[in-house]
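Support request from a user on the community tier.

User writes: "When I paste my structure tokens into the form, the page sometimes reloads and wipes my input. The last time it worked, I copied everything first. Here is what I submitted, just in case something in the input itself triggers the reload:"
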């Protein structure tokens, strides 16, 4: 570490022991005088910024700052000298720094003040956040890939139900078209009945197309898109996929949508994935005829404390008490053939929306999963 050798009183306070302590520090420590000139630059600072101490001592601290911090720094010092109002001093905050090569990198900056009589200076402790940010980006990318794989896994489990859901309108189209052919072959053309048959064909074709479109939107990788959403519309758009899963198992579904829900901000496909994960788990949980007869309940609601919420309630055996919060961990499952990623992915998605995914026991037996999302 090097220090400017001058006659200022506060600089004469430096001792060999202090210099040894600063050089032993893992974080960069930079000291400036009242004018903003660098007066101390430890070894960690040399490594972090790519400058030797000799190159920067006496230079303005702005050489270590990219824009817009560089242009604004002089006004910060002037404002503090004029008003004594501390905005950064005594606190920590994220900022950006610039390497001698011109590379800008994120840092955590803590600033303290040193005084000796009427003379004062400032000490900055700087931690490079580059590695931490890279790990966070890698984690987010991994979560996005896992969520995408989870959608394919969920769809493969629900494939029979999807096929059944599409087969129904296709069968109806065949029936309507056969009826239309018989009308055309008849001695007298009944135009009203023929028009009704044609309308039936059109309606059922649109129904099949909507199921396929919902499936395509769900599978398509569009994880980064977030916008203002109506939660009721998000849930309703996914109901054809939910019913494809529940109808095949003979499980009734009741839904209740609260009126005038506040808007939320989020990704519709991701939130639909959470809904499908929860309803698919509920289908798997309902093993006996009595349990299946009670069905699954889906409802939306809002509250001052929780925000905007949707809830999936079943009447199965519930979650074993010993599992607790472990149910939300990856690869934890009670299903013999399950992967144990559905709830983990769901909680990650909900957390990325600033919300919470919680579990409670159903008073009538079964499980209640609630997703709470912040109001936009």
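"...and here is what came back when it finally went through:"
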């Amino acid at each position: 570490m090097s220090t400017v050798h001058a006659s200022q009183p506060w600089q004469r306070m430096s001792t060999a022991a202090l210099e040894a302590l600063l050089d032993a520090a893992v974080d960069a420590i930079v000291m400036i005088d009242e004018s903003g000139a660098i007066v101390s630059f430890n070894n960690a600072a040399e490594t972090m910024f790519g400058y030797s101490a000799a190159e920067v001592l006496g230079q303005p601290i702005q050489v270590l700052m990219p824009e817009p911090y560089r242009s604004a720094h002089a006004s910060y010092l002037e404002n503090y000298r004029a008003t004594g109002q501390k905005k950064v001093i005594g606190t920590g905050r994220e900022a950006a720094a610039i390497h001698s090569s011109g590379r800008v990198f994120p840092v955590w900056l803590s600033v303290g003040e040193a005084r000796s009589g009427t003379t004062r200076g400032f000490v900055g402790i700087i931690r490079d956040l580059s590695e931490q940010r890279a790990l966070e980006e890698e984690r987010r990318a991994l979560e996005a890939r896992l969520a995408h794989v989870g959608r394919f896994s969920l769809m493969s489990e629900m494939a029979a139900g999807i096929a059944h859901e599409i087969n129904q309108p296709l069968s109806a189209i065949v029936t309507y078209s056969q009826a239309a052919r018989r009308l055309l072959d008849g001695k007298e053309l009944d135009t009203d009945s023929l028009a009704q048959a044609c309308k039936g064909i059109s309606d059922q074709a649109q129904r099949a197309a909507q199921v396929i479109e919902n499936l395509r939107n769900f599978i398509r990788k569009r994880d980064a898109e977030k916008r203002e959403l109506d939660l009721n519309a998000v849930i309703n758009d996914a109901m054809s996929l939910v019913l494809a899963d529940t109808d095949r198992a003979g499980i009734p579904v009741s839904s209740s949508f609260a009126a005038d829900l506040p808007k939320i901000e989020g990704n519709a496909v991701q939130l639909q994935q959470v809904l499908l994960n929860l309803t698919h788990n509920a289908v798997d949980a309902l093993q006996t005829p009595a349990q299946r007869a009670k069905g699954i309940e889906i409802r939306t609601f809002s509250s001052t404390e929780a925000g905007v919420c949707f809830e999936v309630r079943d009447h199965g055996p519930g979650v074993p008490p010993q599992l607790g919060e472990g149910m939300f961990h990856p690869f934890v499952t009670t299903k013999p053939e399950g992967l144990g990623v559905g709830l983990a992915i769901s909680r990650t998605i909900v957390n990325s929306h600033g919300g919470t995914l919680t579990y409670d026991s159903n008073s009538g037996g079964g499980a209640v999963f609630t997703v709470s999302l912040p109001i936009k």
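Agent notes: The reload is a front-end session timeout and is unrelated to the input. The radius of gyration is 32 Å. The mean pLDDT is 80. Escalated to web team.
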